[in-house]
Amino acid sequence: MKALDISGLTKTYKGGTQALKGINLQVSEGDFFALLGPNGAGKSTTIGVISSLVNKSTGSVKVFGHSVDTELVEAKSCIGLVPQEFNFNQFETLQQIVVNQAGYYGVPRDIAKKRAEKYLKQLDLWEKRNEPARELSGGMKRRLMIARALMHEPKMLILDEPTAGVDIEIRRSMWTFLKEINEQGITIILTTHYLEEAEMLCRNIAIIDKGIIVENTSMKALLSKLSMETFVLDLPVQSKPPCLQGFAFRNIDDHTMEVDADKDVGLNDVFRQLTEQGVTVLSMRNKANRLEELFVRMVEKGRKEQAGAA
Amino acid sequence: MANRNFTALRTIWIKECTRFLRIWIQTLVPPAITMSLYFVIFGSLIGSRIGQMGGFSYMEFIVPGLIMMSVITNSYANVSSSFFSAKFQRNIEELLVAPVPSWIIVLGFVGGGVARAILIGVIVTTVSMFFVDIQIHNLAIIIITLILTSSLFATAGLINAVYAKTFDDISMVPTFVLTPLTYLGGVFYSLTLLPEFWQWVSKANPIVYMVNGFRYGFLGVSDVDYMLSLGLLVGFNLLLFTIAYRLINRGVGIRS
Asked: Would you say A99 and B94 are in contact if contact means Cβ atoms under 8 Å apart?
C-alpha cells in the first residue's frame, strides 16, 4: 500500500493564483521522501492539502488508502504534521501543548501524559516542560513541533522545513532522531532548502516547480545523472601557477585551484600531472553540493519545457 | 468514534478553561470590581433615592440584570478573544489537522465561554450579597437562563471571531452593539416606566428577554413572559449554533 497517493491535484487560490497544476505523486510506506522546490513552487500548498489545511480544487489524495474526501478522519489519524511556521500557543507550557494535541486525536489524558514524557525526553525538552513555549529558542520550538506531531503516533510524518534557522549541532541531532523513527517504520516526507539534508536523509525525491512535478525518482538515480563535478584543491603557495592538460581548471589564487572532472574520467590523471609538476595537494573538497547542482538544473529544465509547451 | 470525540471535546474545554484561569486578572477580577461599583453607585447611593421598582428595592431589582450583563459580556469576550487569538497565532491549525468534527470545535469553544460566564455569574452574585439579601424565586429558571444566555453569546462571539481579521473587529460588536442593547435591555429600569411606543421598541431587543427571564428566576416578576424568554433563547441558540457549525465546517476564515 502507498503511504501517499496523489493524483491530478490542482489548487487555485481565490484571486486566481494556480499553485498546483495537476500533481501526481506516490510515496511508499516506510519511505524517507524529499519534496524539493524553490520558494512558491507549491510545496507548502501540497502539504496543506494533504493535512486538510488547504481545500483542494480538483484531484484525489489518499493517505494509506484513505481518501481525504470520503475517509477524512482515518486519513487525518495517519498524519503527523510539522509545519514551517511556529503554530502553537506561545503562552501554553510545552506539556500542555503536546498533551492537548494528543487529546484532539482522542488519546486519553493519562496516556497522553506518558507519551509527552517519552517524546519530550527524546527531543531534549523534558526539562523545559513547564515553561511557556514563547521562552524556547528557535531550535527548541522546532523540536517541540516534532514532539507534538508524534503524540498520536502517526504512520506518516510530514515535515515542512523542519530545520530552518536551526544551528548545525541541533540539526544533526534532529537528523539522527528522524532517521531513528523512520527505521521504526514511520514514513517521512520532508521539504527543505538544505539540499545536503535531503541527500543525507532521503531515499526518494520529487522536485516541484511552479505547481508541477519536474522530477520524481530515487536519490541514487538522481545523483547518478550528475556527470561533471567541480573540486577545489588546496595547494602550498605556488610561485608558478600549475597547469593541467585535458581538464578545465582555474587557479583561484596562489594556493587554490578548481578542477572540473567528468566522473567517467576520474581524478588520477589530475594527481599525476600535479605530481609531475612537483605540486602537493594538501586537501580537496567538492565545490558545491552535488544535489544543489542537479536541483538547479532540473528546475531550469522544467521551466524551459513549460515555456516550450506554452 | 464517540470516545474520541468526547476526549477531543474535553481537551478543548480544559484548554479554554485553563486559558481564562491563567489570565484571571484580566478575566475574573474586572467584572467583580465593575459590578461592585455599580452596586455602590446605582444601588446604594442613587438607588436609595429612587425607591421601589416593580415592588422591590432598586438594589434588589438591578441585581439580576447586572449579573446577566456580566454573563453576556464575558461569554462573548471569552470566545471571540480566544478563537481569534487561535487564528492569529495559527494554533487553530492544531485542531484543523486533527480528526475533530466541526461541531465538537464549536461546542468546545462555546463550553469554555459558558464556563467563564457561570464563574463570573457566581462571583458577581457573591459580591451582590454584600449589598442585598438575594432571594430566589425559581432556581431552575435561573440556571437554564444563565446557561442558554451564556451559550448564545459565546456562539455569537465565535461567529464574530471567524469573520474577524484584526483585533479591532472583535471589539466593534461589544462596543457598538452589545453594550447599547444591554443598557437598553431593562437592566436598570422596568419597561413599564417607558411610554407604550418605546416599550414596544424595547421588546425588539433580545436582551430584554434574557434579563427579564433571569429576573423572574430571582424575584418572580418580569416585564415579559418568562416562557417566551426561554423559547427565544432556545431558538436563537439553535440558529447561531447552526451558523457557527457551517462556518467552521466550510473553513471560513481558517482554511485557504
From this structure: no
